[in-house]
Please model this.
Amino acid sequence: MLASNYQDGQSTAASSAIAADDIDSTAGITEAVIAGAVTAGGDVSLTGKDDQSVQAVAGSAEVGGASIGAGVAVVTVNNAALARVDGRIDAGGRLSVQGVHQGDHDVTAFIGEAAGSFTAGAGVAIVNDHGVQEAAIRDGAVIESAASIDLTSSRSYSKFKTLAVEAQIAGLGAAGASIARSVADGATTAYIGDATIGDPTSPSAPVGDVTIEAGSDIRPQARAYSASAGVLAAGDGNQEVAEVTPTVSASFASAGGPEASNAQTPDDINRIAGDVTIVANSTAKPRAIGVGVAVAGGVAIPVTLPTATASPTVEAYIGEDTVLHVLGNGNTNPNTATGRLEVVAIAADDPHADGTAAGAAVASGGGTGVFATNKTTLNAYVGDGATVTTNTDTLVKAEHEYVGYARGQGGDLGALAVNVDNATLDIEPTVQAYIASANVQAGGDVIIESESGTPGELPDLSFAAGTDIDYDANTITFERPHGLETGETVVYRANGQTPIGGLTDGANYQVIRVSDRTIKLGTFFTADQVDNDSGEIRFDNPHNLESGAGVVYDANGNPWINGLHNGLSYFVNALDASALKLSPTVEIADNEAIAAFNGHSAVDYETNEIRLAASYAATGESL
Model:
C-alpha cells in the first residue's frame, strides 16, 4: 500500500501554500516466465499478479488578509502483470497461464480558504492508470501436450475514485477551481503467438480444450465540488474527467511455430482434441460528476465541465495465416461431439456525466458543458490467409451493449442573469464480426453475428425445456420480452443438452409470435407453393425438417389448404431440402402405422373425442 496525507499551514497575514502528493509507480512489474523445458505429470501453473492499493490525500487550509493555496494529488500507475511461456512444456494435466491486476485507487484533494480581501485556490485529484496485463504463449514456444490450456488476462478494481473539493470565502473576491481526473488506458491481452501447439509428429492430438480469455472491468469515478463567495465577485470552475480507453485483446495467431516443418502435412499442425474458445470481454462504466456554486454581491460566474468517455478497443481473433485444426473428440453425434470454435468479442459500456452550476449575484452567468461519449471499437474475426477446420460449429460473434447518460443543469439569480447548459450524449460504436479471406471448414454450422444495442434491445432467448415449454400448445415462453416478430429466423441450440423432441440442434426455424414473451417455431408456406396434384409443398428457403418429424398445421387465419385440417398433426416426408409432403401417418412396420394428433387442439376432453387428420378404423376396431 502507498499512502500519503498532507495538510499545510494556517496564517493570520497574507499567505500562500501548496500541498502535493505525487506517486509514480513506473517500475511495478510482476513477471512469471517459463523459458526452458518443463515436464510434469500433472498441472503446470504460471501466474503474474499485481495487487495494488493506492490511497492519497492532499489538502490545504488558509486564513489571512489575502490567500492563495492548492491541494494537489497525482497518481500515475504503470504497473505490469505478465505471465509468459517462451519455452517447451510437456504436461499431463492442465496448463494455466494468468496475468492478473486487481487495483484499489482512492485519491482526494481539497483546498479551503478564508480571507479578508481576496482568495484563490485549487483542488486537483488525478489518477492515470496505464497498466498492462498479459497472459501469453509467445512466438517460438512449444506445448507438446496438455490436458487443457487456459490463458487468462484480467484487470479489475474494487475502487477507482478521484475527489476534488474547493471552498473560498473572501471579503472582496474569491476564485477557485476543482479538477478530478480518473483515466484508465493500457492493455489487457491473452494470446497464443507463433508457437507449436501439440506434437505434429504424433498420431493423436495431445492437447485438449484451449481457452484464451482477456477481461477488463473498469468503473472509474471523477467528482469535483466547488463553492466561492465574495462581497464583490466570486467565480469557480470544475473539470471532471472519467475515461476508459484500454485495449482488450484475445487471439490465436500460430502458423505452426518452430516445429511446423516436422509435420508431414499441414493437417498435422496445431491439432486440438477439444474445443477452442477465444473471448475478449470489456466493461467500461465511467462516472463524471461536478457541482459548482458562486455567490457574490456583484458578479458570480460558476462553470462545470464533466466528461465521461467509454471507448475501449476490444478484439477477439484468429490471426493472419494461422493454422488451426479443432478436431474435438472426432464424434459426429451432435449430442456428444466436441470440436467447436468460438471467437467472441463483448463490450458493455455506460458513460455517465452529470453537471450542476449555480450562481447568485447582481450579475451572474455560468453554465455546464456535459459530455458522455461511447466510441468503442469491437471486432471478432478470422484473419486473412488463415486455415481453420472444426469438427462441429464455428462461431464468430461481436456483441455490444450500451447505456449512456448526460445531464447539465443550473440556474443564476440576479438583476442580470445568464445561464447556458449543454449536455451531449455521443454513441458511435464500431462493431464487426467477419471472416476475411480465410479457409474455414466446419463440420457443423458457420455462424457470424454482430449486435449492438441497449440491454432491452438484446433479449435473452434462453429457456428451460422443463418449465418454459407448453407441449400441448407447442409454445415457448421466455422470462423477458423476446423482441421477435412473425417470420423472423432463429437458430435452436441445445447447448450440450438433449435436443427437444421435434427440434434439431443448430437448425434454423421461423418465428410465429404469440405474445411479447411467447413464440412458436415453424416454417411458412402459402397456397401457391402447394402442388394440388402431388400434395408437394415447395418452400422458398430450406424447411429444416426431417422425414418422420411431427408438425402441426396452422392456417394462421387463412383458408385451409386443400386436404389439410387446421390444428391437426402430420408427419413430414422430406423430398429434399426445400420440398416435403405431409402425411397423417408414419409407417413403422408392415401394415402398421402411427397416427399423430395434438393433445391441445385435437382432443375434446368433455366428450373424450379425438380428431384425426384421416380415417383409420371402423367402429369397434382396435387402434
